[in-house]
Amino acid sequence: MKLRYMIEYALRDRIRNPRYEPIGVWAQGLGPGLDLVIEFLPGNADAEEEAQWVVNRLVEQGVRSLPDDFLAYHQGTLSKYRGMRGPVIQTDEYPSTESCARSVIDRIKSGRIS
Known about the structure:
Structural class: alpha+beta
Order of helices and strands: EEEHHEEH
Largest sheet: 5 strands, antiparallel
Radius of gyration: 14 Å
Helix content: 25-40%
Number of strands: 5
Strand content: 25-35%
Distance between the termini: 26 Å
């Protein structure tokens, strides 16, 4: 299945040793419908809440399909003082957005994505 995903990073230790750490993933299917999965590592409630607001707004507005540039648009909506969202990657490596999100989260937990 073709899909797109991007990794979300949080800015940590902004004063002494600023660095971006991966905390989550946004995965979007390329077909019709709201095929979107957003997952975060535990302990990132603020980022999770912000993502939930995005989903809630889509539902409230009656959006039935996501535009092709959905992830690219949301890439630029996060303040660099809080974090960043990495490049949008298109792949056919995963059978579903859920499996993509799970795989990326597992790679973040294991340290293979930094």
